[in-house]
Design goal:
Shape: globular
Radius of gyration: 18 Å
Number of helices: 3
Oligomer: single chain
Strand content: 35-45%
């Protein structure tokens, strides 16, 4: 057993906020109550670390998304452009950390990982093959609620001369997790830390339900919105003390 991401904490990072974001058939934008089938760790050739979450949707189908939680340096933050003394958590890190909190009451840094063998798609072999991965064992079969967006984005192709990836003029449709909620209470993790009432759920649905989020460069308007309520202050349990955000023990 291992605390694989024990060094990736929110200590010293700016508080995450609740923001209204603006080859397969994506599900419509909405909040879905799901059961976590598995969450496992991975790493890109660049060194950036990720987690893949596989969840069972209300209709019984699988939802799968790989989310990067660090940059290639292994950092789970970026520096605020206006004040580089402030470390802002990477959006992907916040999403995975919130999934851990909503499902178990404890952050990613306190999750126990064990090596398991899962069938994972291999792009070279073009099929699923048994693969050793590190799995967050406490998350299996836990329930969370995910705000999942139907996203429109540019297909890109590498420019052989510049090495940059540029839009091709074609569009691809994907799904992305925009926000995480505690299913029973309907609060976001920011609301839970601040002791606020669950208002963001209804606000997010009212603004985003069934609306695609257009990330294409040609799009004139996105669906990004303002945070709901006053941003809570950062906080956490004292060093050495393991305290659940929702009062649950292990």
């Amino acid at each position: 057993m291992s605390n694989l991401f024990g060094n990736l904490t929110t200590t010293g990072l700016e508080e995450s906020e609740d923001r209204l974001g603006g080859g397969f058939k994506p599900v419509p934008t909405d909040i879905y109550n799901v059961k976590i089938k598995v969450l496992y760790a991975g790493q890109a050739e660049s060194g950036a670390r990720n987690c893949t979450v596989v969840a069972i949707m209300p209709d019984g189908k699988e939802y799968r998304e790989t989310i990067y939680i660090t940059n290639k340096k292994g950092e789970n933050f970026f520096l605020n452009k206006e004040d580089n003394t402030k470390k802002v958590p990477l959006p992907g890190f916040t999403t995975i950390d919130d999934i851990c909190l909503a499902a178990t009451g404890f952050p990613l840094a306190e999750q126990t990982f064990e090596e398991k063998i899962l069938k994972i798609y291999d792009f070279e072999q073009k099929k699923e093959v048994p693969t050793k991965v590190m799995v967050a064992v406490e998350l299996c079969d836990k329930e969370v609620s995910l705000a999942i967006q139907h996203v429109l984005e540019d297909k890109t192709k590498k420019n052989d001369q510049t090495g940059d990836y540029e839009p091709t003029g074609e569009t691809r449709e994907i799904n992305q997790i925009a926000k995480v909620f505690h299913t029973e209470s309907k609060v976001t993790m920011a609301e839970a830390r601040a002791g606020q009432d669950p208002t963001f759920w209804d606000t997010w649905v009212e603004r985003n339900k069934n609306q695609p989020y257009d990330k294409r460069k040609a799009a004139k308007n996105g669906s990004a919105g303002k945070p709901a309520g006053k941003p809570p202050t950062a906080g956490g349990a004292p060093a050495g003390e393991r305290k659940s955000l929702f009062g649950k023990g292990k």
